[in-house]
Design a protein that fits this description.
3 strands, mainly alpha, 8 helices, binds zinc ion, 3-stranded mixed β-sheet, single chain, 46% helix
Length: 214
């Protein structure tokens, strides 16, 4: 049996038995078919329901969408979308992002307590030509957003909290988390030696044209 079937067969069984939760079970199974991975909140829910119905599924097969840390090199701080557009444009961009994500975190599937999600800018770093280009905007819960900027979290005294969230979402041990963060900081140090040019053409699809001045 293929791995996908090893997951979908028990989920079909769960769908049949757990009649009160059919809508969510079907939604999560479909999300998995589309993305090939689950969000942390989906796994937590499904594992709980499967065990309630004593349906066996090898949990190690359930791949979780990984939360990554994206440290902005010290030489490009403040080079963000927000500082290149006016407030109403930024509000339009972030509100569209939230709506598309149904006000849920696009990594863990969760929602914040005080506010549900924040808008995160995804950057690609071209390490040859030193171009920092915008690749998209996604909705993240405040806890995942804090992990993205774990350096800032550390300065604010929330480093441990951020590390714990990173480990939880990815299902990593403390050692795995530490090893990953070490690599992240190494890349950050390397990138922080250079001046980066900002590339915001991703925004053109919204009719927003910016030629960043540095
Ligand atoms: Zn999240």
């Amino acid at each position: 049996m293929e791995d996908a079937e090893k997951i979908l067969t028990p989920l079909r069984e769960l769908y049949r038995r757990d009649t009160n939760n059919r809508k969510l079970i079907a939604e999560y199974a479909n999300n998995f078919k589309k993305r090939g991975v689950f969000l942390r909140s989906e796994v937590d829910f499904l594992v709980e329901r499967l065990s309630a119905h004593k349906i066996e599924l090898d949990v190690s097969l359930l791949q979780v969408k990984l939360l990554t840390v994206e440290l902005v090199p010290s030489t490009c701080w403040f080079s963000n979308v927000r500082s290149h557009v006016n407030k109403s444009t930024w509000d339009f961009l972030r509100q569209s992002t939230y709506k598309q994500a149904n006000f849920r975190c696009e990594v863990c599937g969760g929602r914040g307590k005080k506010w549900s999600v924040e808008c995160h800018e995804i950057w690609h770093y071209d390490d040859r030509n030193y171009i920092q280009s915008l690749e998209g905007l996604i909705a993240l819960c405040p806890s995942c957003q804090e992990v993205k900027h774990i350096g800032l979290a550390g300065i604010r005294g929330h480093g441990e909290r951020a590390e714990a969230h990173l480990a939880k979402v990815n299902g990593w041990s403390q050692e795995q988390t530490k090893a990953y963060l070490e690599k992240v900081w190494q890349t950050w140090h390397e990138r922080s030696h250079y001046q980066w040019n900002l590339e915001l053409s991703w925004l053109e699809q919204y009719g927003i044209n910016i030629s960043p001045k540095r």
